[in-house]
Design goal:
Its cofactor is Mg(2+). Keywords: Acetylation, ATP-binding, Ligase, Magnesium, Metal-binding, Nucleotide-binding. Belongs to the ATP-dependent AMP-binding enzyme family. It comes from Alterirhizorhabdus solaris. This is Acetyl-coenzyme A synthetase. With about 650 residues, the chain is of the alpha/beta class. The protein has a domain of about 120 residues: 2-Layer Sandwich (GMP Synthetase, Chain A, domain 3), CATH 3.30.300.30. Helices cover about 30% and strands about 25% of the residues. Strands 12-11-8-6-7-14-15-24 form an eight-stranded mixed sheet, sandwiched between helices. It has a seven-stranded mixed sheet with strand order 5-4-17-16-18-19-20, with helices on both faces. Helix 4 packs antiparallel against helix 5 and helix 7 packs across helix 8. The chain starts with 9 loop residues before the first helix and ends with a helix. The structure holds adenosine-5'-monophosphate-propyl ester (PRX). The site of adenosine-5'-monophosphate-propyl ester has 22 residues, from helix 11, strand 20, strand 25 and strand 26.
């Protein structure tokens, strides 16, 4: 743990929406009078019916429910577009930077409004109605934001599937929420390579019957097969549509979007966010944590396929009338200076990225960074995984030239937006600590039995109260929602993360304590990778754990037991890696595969993951008690054949 402290700079405190005194006051207000606090905050949105009911929730089984602003009505696209037209219709809403540095566009609020209305009308013409689900499988191009906002305009529920997911993963996500319509592109571009999105869609739809319409954006111009009756050219569909579409007033608790995320069990969960509370949380946290003011260029590098892209590439910045930068490419192409070149090119004020990208760039040397000016930058942000102090210090010293504050923001798909983070004008920074809770967030540290620990301590992170941006359910499985988050510690939301709190009340997230691993800031369920592996004809059993990885944070370590008579060799290892990539997507590629004749199990047949984790971490001297194993000799074999 780093001992360094970087105090708030006077210039940041002076310009900030929230300085240290305001933080204390607002935090206390939100904790003591949540209804009064959130009633006032709700005024930052345009409501067609202002809410009179504010928080209405209980985490107890007998009365389990979560509602915010339930009698209010509003429309998300009207809040992100229409209300800005009179004052800043000609301001840039989206700066698009293509994978190829020669590709780019700037889209004003007025243009974005017209595009969204056209697509909304086109969706209606295709029979999409309020409440219908629309799957979006697009690269990072402006049409992704247009598609999201067009759905919200008519009350359709979007489900974005990251373009890196395989046809099977896409098919599962389409089927789970029963989407009728899908929006995709011919191909995506990443690092000079093409991603065959439409071909993946064709493969996925071979298993899905619910989708009757596919809109295809011509992005690269690559060859695709269009299935008559089902597939329509996106440009044709919107050319025929009017640039004006009334915004449907939605109940604050009407579904806004579904986003699938990995959990401890095999099947990804459809996290459901609703309209009022989510938008308020995205907008308010975006303004406060980044101390954002319209006119500043905000760049969040996350793909819209992840929650960070939802809340901080699209909804937060646009709700605040801001300018958001959407980047199609990758940090290391055409070279390792791409991020910094883009910052100079578009005069980016605020840059928000993931530790994994920083670690990868850090290895390439400082010259890539220092050859750029970066003088437009005012604030840096980090998200997705714990940032190790070395990466933090590099980000601060080299990228920020020792001057710029860094907000290390802890949150989850489930939380809708940032929950624990420094505020640049209020919080002294400690490298590696997400620091203090946002307004309305009541973190507690509990031990395994749920006893609340006070003061400087370490344990599991729970949240004792609801907040407006909280997910409302798991799509189609409300019981799973309750079981997953509210039963481990009764009456509290369990985050799945471990945490340490220091004597100054700063929170230090230590990582997942469940069977979820965080690979390059992306959540992967170990059970998902296991089920992909056992689906291979030669595999009898598999157990997957996380292992430390210099760049990715965590890597995927798979123990695989092969069917009798099958020999585990290098060729099979490669085949299994390819298999998992095909089943789930490249982000799930195992980093290490160890062939294991047996796995350590208790006498009742339960795999002892604790031991497998230790071996993968290389801590073979600290395996703990192995006496309860059915066959302790298994462990010796695993240790002797560890893949390093
Ligand atoms: O373990 C925490 C880690 O990422 C998990 C949430 O992943 P996901 O739902 O994909 O959302 C990622 C983007 C918000 C958390 O349970 N995590 C996220 N941010 C941080 C973090 N761990 C430490 N520090 C962070 N700033």
């Amino acid at each position: 743990m780093s001992q360094a402290i970087y105090p708030v700079r006077p210039e940041d405190a002076a310009r900030a929406h929230v300085d240290a005194a305001a933080y204390e006051r607002l935090y206390a207000e939100a904790a003591q009078d949540p209804d009064g606090f959130w009633r006032r905050q709700a005024e930052r949105l345009d409501w067609t019916t202002p809410p009179t009911q504010i928080g209405d929730w209980s985490f107890d089984e007998a009365d389990f429910h979560i509602k915010w602003f339930a009698d209010g009505a509003l429309n998300v696209s009207a809040n992100c577009l229409d209300r800005h037209l009179a004052t800043r219709g000609d301001d840039t809403a989206i700066i698009w930077e293509g994978d190829d540095p020669a590709d780019g566009r700037r889209i004003s609020y007025r243009e974005l409004h017209a595009d969204v209305c056209r697509l909304a009308n086109a969706l209606k013409a295709k029979g999409v109605a309020k409440g219908d689900r629309v799957t979006i499988y697009l690269p990072m191009i402006p049409e992704a934001a247009v598609a999201m906002l067009a759905c919200t305009r008519i009350g359709a529920v979007h489900s974005i599937v990251f373009g890196g997911f395989s046809p099977d993963a896409l098919a599962n996500r389409i089927q789970d929420c029963d989407s009728r319509l899908l929006i995709t592109a011919d191909e995506g571009r990443r690092g000079g390579k093409r991603v065959p999105l439409k071909a993946n869609v064709d493969a996925a739809l071979a298993h899905c019957t619910s989708v009757d319409t596919v809109l295809v954006v011509r992005h690269t111009g690559g060859e695709v097969t269009m299935q008559p009756g089902r597939d329509t050219d996106y440009a044709e569909a919107i050319a025929a549509a009017a640039p004006d579409c009334p915004a449907e007033p939605m109940g604050a608790e009407d579904p806004l979007f579904i986003l699938y995320t990995s959990g401890s069990t095999g099947k990804p969960k459809g996290v459901l966010h609703t309209t009022g509370g989510y938008l308020l949380w995205a907008a308010y946290t975006h303004e406060t944590v980044f101390d954002y003011r319209p006119g500043e260029v905000f760049w969040c590098t996350a793909d819209v396929g992840w929650v960070t892209g939802h809340s901080y590439t699209v909804y937060g910045p646009l709700a605040n009338g801001g300018t958001t930068l959407m980047f199609e490419g990758v940090p290391n192409w055409p070279d390792h200076g791409r991020f910094w070149d883009v910052i100079d090119k578009h005069k980016v004020d605020i840059f928000y990225t993931a530790p994994t990208a920083l670690r990868a760039l850090m290895r390439e040397g400082d010259d890539w960074v220092t050859r750029s000016s970066r003088k437009s930058l005012r604030l840096l942000g980090s998200v997705g995984e714990p940032i190790n102090p070395e990466a933090w210090e590099w980000y601060h010293r080299v990228v920020g030239e020792g001057k710029l504050p860094i907000v290390d923001t802890w949150w989850q798909t489930e939380t809708g937006g940032i929950m624990i983070s420094p505020l640049p004008g209020a919080t002294d920074l400690k490298p590696g600590s997400a620091s203090k809770p946002f307004f309305g967030v009541l973190p507690q540290v509990v031990d395994a039995e749920g006893v609340v620990l006070e003061g400087a301590t370490e344990g599991n992170l729970v949240l004792a109260a609801s907040w407006p941006g909280q997910m409302r359910t798991v799509w189609n499985d409300h019981d799973r929602f309750f079981q997953t988050y509210f039963t481990t510690y009764k009456g509290k939301y369990f985050t799945g993360d471990g945490v340490r709190r220091d004597a100054d009340g700063y929170y230090w997230i230590t990582g997942r304590v469940d069977d979820v691993i965080n690979v390059s800031g992306h959540r992967m369920g170990t059970a998902e990778v296991e089920s992909a592996l056992v689906a291979h004809a030669k595999v009898a059993e598999a157990a997957v754990v996380g292992m430390p990885h210099d760049v990715k944070g965590q890597g995927i370590y798979a123990y695989v037991t092969l069917n009798a008579g099958v020999e585990g060799d290098e060729a099979l290892r490669k085949e299994l890696v390819q298999w998992v990539r095909r089943e789930i997507g490249p982000i799930a590629s195992p980093d290490a595969i160890q062939f294991a004749p047996g796995l350590p199990k208790t006498r009742s047949g339960k795999i002892m993951r604790r031991i497998l984790r230790k071996i993968a971490e290389g801590e073979v001297g600290a395996l703990g008690d192995t006496s309860t194993l059915a066959d302790p000799a298994v462990v010796d074999h695993l240790v002797a054949n560890r893949v390093s």
